[in-house]
Design brief:
GO terms for molecular function: carbohydrate derivative binding; DNA binding; DNA-binding transcription factor activity. Pfam families: HTH_6, SIS. The chain is α/β, with parallel strands linked by helices. The protein folds into 2 domains: about 5-75, Arc Repressor Mutant, subunit A, CATH 1.10.10; about 115-275, Rossmann fold (3-Layer(aba) Sandwich), CATH 3.40.50. It has 13 helices and 5 strands. It has a 5-stranded parallel sheet, with helices on both faces. Helix 6 (about 95-115) packs across helix 12, helix 7 (about 120-130) crosses helix 12 and helix 8 packs parallel to helix 12. The N and C termini lie far apart (about 50 Å).
Length: about 290
C-alpha cells in the first residue's frame, strides 16, 4: 500500500488529520519546510507530525516527507494517453493496437528509470556479483520471466536457480547456502508465501533483492536492496499484465547488463567464443554478419 493510500485508511485524531490535510494542500512546497515551520503553518505541533509519521510506520517526519514527495512526483506525473489497464478498445485497428501497446511499454520503461535508485541498484548488483549462488523466488508468469535471466546468467557462468514449485519454496529458502543471494519478485509485496520466504532469508542473513511495486509494502521493508516496478497497473480489471511483465523483464535485463559490465572484456570474449562453438548458424542478411 502506498503512503497516499495509507493516509486515507488510517484513523487519525483531529490534530493529526490537520497534519495530513496540510501535507496534501502543500504538496511539493513541503520540500523546503522544516518541522517547526510546518507545525506552525498547520496550527499543530512538531510532536503531532511525529505521531502521524509513526502511525504511517515511519521513524520521523523527514522520512515521511521524503517518501510522500516521491510518491506525489510519481503518481501525479502524466505519462501517457494510453490506459495501462485497458490500452485499446474493440474499435481499434490492429495497427492502432500495435502503436498503443508500444506506447505503453515505452512509458513503462520511463517509469522504471524514474524509480531506479543508484544506491539500491548498486547494492543489488554487488550482492549478485559477490555471492556464490543466486536463487529466484516468484510465482505464476514471473517464473517464466525469470527463466530468461537464468538462461543469460548461466552463459556467464553465474549459478542461478529458480524455486519453481510453490510447495518447495520454504524448503528451498531453508536449504540455500550461506554465501548465496535471493531475488524475490512480487508486485504487491504482500503475498503470504513470499513474506514467509523473506522472514527465513532474513533470519539466515541471506541478502534479499526485492523486485516489487513502488509502495510501502512489507517485502520492501525486509529487503536489502529494492528495485521498483512501474506501479500503475490494477490487480484484476485489466486486459493483461503488460506493464508488470515489462517491468520484471527490464529490471532483470538491467541486473544482467550491470553484472556483464563488471568484467566486460572477459565476458564478451567468453560469450563470443562459446556461441561460435555451440550456436552455429548462417547469417541471412548483412545486418547479421559479424
Amino acid at each position: 500500500m502506498t503512503i497516499l493510500e495509507l493516509m486515507k485508511e488510517t484513523k487519525f485524531t483531529g490534530a493529526e488529520q490537520l497534519v495530513v490535510d496540510y501535507m496534501h494542500s502543500q504538496k511539493y512546497e513541503l520540500a523546503n519546510k522544516t518541522l517547526k515551520v510546518a507545525a506552525k503553518e498547520s496550527f499543530t505541533s512538531p510532536s503531532t507530525f511525529i505521531r502521524v509519521a509513526n502511525k504511517l510506520n515511519f521513524d520521523g517526519w523527514n522520512d515521511l516527507k521524503s517518501t510522500f514527495l516521491k510518491e506525489l512526483t510519481y503518481f501525479e506525473r502524466d505519462i501517457s494517453t494510453v490506459d495501462l489497464n485497458i490500452p485499446f478498445s474493440k474499435n481499434d485497428s490492429v495497427l492502432s493496437i500495435a502503436n498503443k501497446i508500444t506506447e505503453l511499454k515505452k512509458n513503462t520503461f520511463d517509469d522504471i528509470v524514474d524509480l531506479l535508485s543508484y544506491k539500491e541498484l548498486t547494492k543489488a548488483v554487488d550482492y549478485l556479483n559477490q555471492r556464490k549462488s543466486i536463487t529466484i523466488f516468484a510465482s505464476s508468469v514471473n517464473l517464466l520471466l525469470a527463466e530468461e535471466f537464468q538462461f543469460k546468467m548461466k552463459r556467464l557462468k553465474y549459478p542461478v536457480t529458480i524455486s519453481s514449485l510453490e510447495s518447495e519454496h520454504i524448503y528451498d529458502a531453508l536449504n540455500m547456502e550461506e554465501e548465496s543471494c535471493a531475488i524475490l519478485i512480487s508486485y504487491t509485496g504482500s503475498s503470504v508465501k513470499m513474506l514467509e520466504i523473506a522472514d527465513i532469508l532474513k533470519d539466515r542473513r541471506i541478502p534479499i533483492i526485492a523486485i516489487t511495486s513502488f509502495s510501502d509494502n512489507i517485502l520492501s521493508k525486509n529487503a536489502n536492496a529494492i528495485l521498483f516496478m512501474a506501479t500503475r497497473e490494477r490487480l484484476y480489471s485489466k486486459v493483461g499484465h503488460y506493464s508488470t511483465n515489462t517491468s520484471v523483464t527490464h529490471l532483470l535485463d538491467i541486473l544482467y547488463s550491470a553484472l556483464f559490465a563488471k568484467n566486460f572484456e572477459s565476458n564478451m570474449d567468453h560469450i563470443v567464443s562459446t556461441s561460435k562453438i555451440a550456436d552455429i548458424r548462417l547469417a541471412t542478411s548483412r545486418a547479421m554478419e559479424e
